[in-house]
Amino acid sequence: MHVNGKVALVTGGAQGIGRAFAQALLGKGAKVALLDRNSEAGQESKAALAEQFEAQRTVFIQCDVTDQEQLKGAFKKVIEHFGRLDIVVNNAGVNNEKDWESTIQINLTSVIRGTYLGLEYMGKGNGGDGGVIINISSLAGLMPAAFQPVYCATKHGVIGFTRSIALAANMENYGVRLNTICPGFVNTPILQSIDKEENMGQYYSYKDEIKNMMQFYGVMDPSIIAEGLITIIEDDTLNGEVMKITASQGIHFQQYSQTPFTSTKR
């Protein structure tokens, strides 16, 4: 897919990786809708991006992704504003082991809902033009994370869901490709959450162990993750892939054994 002229929707788009995604997409000529529950950060990001790119190419929509009606409404607003939708990036995420129900809602449930909404609008079976959906997981979705078990579970779930629905998309000819990005540690506000007891709960006492892991593995700039996003969007051969991005190895892909047998559509 050529990014130029396409319309992208990015959840959690006001800061961190989401904002880096928006900047990279705009740099390639796309139009971008930033969705975020933080109105102040969203307006600031919209203003900053408007200074760098044409103002009419970005829109900010305040949205709590855990609110089903808000998320549905935000998708509808994007279509009404730009007239189409080509790229969905389900990026919104948190690290909160204390309020773990909320972590599941934001990191996994909203990703599933955002994927289905993307398919509803972009799927060729629904009259759409096709498109790309990228769901953001983490290296914690591929390995255990001793002091972040619920975060880890949600990120495993994102990978399993995305790989599975990518198979379905291929079998049913949705015209939509679905892939996952799994970054290592990235310099975003979410890293600051490990210093807060209200986020870490019973695992708060292990914050120094997590910081030692960050120092060992290295912390990346969000722009590196954005490079991976553009790679996935532009490569039409990628579907159901799990892209890993680490400070030591850069952009590479998780290797899996052959997927199990799947029947063709009757």
TrEMBL record:
InterPro entries: KR_dom, NAD(P)-bd_dom_sf, Sc_DH/Rdtase_CS, SDR_fam
One MF term in the entry's GO annotations: NAD+ binding
UniProt cross-references to Pfam families, sorted A to Z: adh_short (PF00106)
Record's keyword terms, sorted: Fatty acid metabolism, Lipid metabolism, Oxidoreductase, Prostaglandin metabolism
Reactions accelerated catalytically: 14-hydroxy-(4Z,7Z,10Z,12E,16Z,19Z)-docosahexaenoate + NAD(+) = 14-oxo-(4Z,7Z,10Z,12E,16Z,19Z)-docosahexaenoate + NADH + H(+); resolvin D1 + NAD(+) = 8-oxoresolvin D1 + NADH + H(+); resolvin D2 + NAD(+) = 7-oxoresolvin D2 + NADH + H(+); resolvin D1 + NAD(+) = 17-oxoresolvin D1 + NADH + H(+)
Listed GO CC annotations: basolateral plasma membrane; cytosol; nucleoplasm
KW Oxidoreductase (keyword) present: yes
PROSITE patterns: ADH_SHORT
Keyword Nucleus: no
Enzyme category, top tier: oxidoreductase
Protein name as catalogued: 15-hydroxyprostaglandin dehydrogenase [NAD(+)]
Organism of derivation: Aquila chrysaetos chrysaetos
